[in-house]
Design goal:
The chain has one domain. The chain is built from four helices and no strands. It is elongated, with a radius of gyration of 23 Å. It is mostly helical and about 80 residues long. About 0% of the residues are buried.
């Protein structure tokens, strides 16, 4: 998206919000605004999450019990105490 398109989109959103009459929608927008401001993830963390989600989409997931069985086989000394 280029800069001009971004500016146009923002102006359209501002115009739309200024015409809202539904208080519940305004409250949802306020919640969205406060949520966006409180994001504490770094870009590195966000990228890691995006990579993990992409991996899940392409490769799927492994069931927990399968992971636990493999872990017990690889590290039996951790389970035989």
């Amino acid at each position: 998206m280029n800069t001009q398109q971004l500016q146009n989109d923002k102006l359209n959103i501002i115009n739309w919000i200024s015409q809202l009459q539904d208080y519940s929608v305004v409250e949802k927008i306020k919640t969205l605004m406060s949520t966006a401001d409180t994001s504490t993830l770094t870009n590195e963390q966000k990228n890691a999450i995006d990579q993990a989600l992409q991996s899940i989409e392409t490769k799927g997931t492994i069931p927990h019990n399968t992971v636990m069985e493999e872990t017990k086989k690889r590290f039996p000394h951790l389970y035989n105490r």
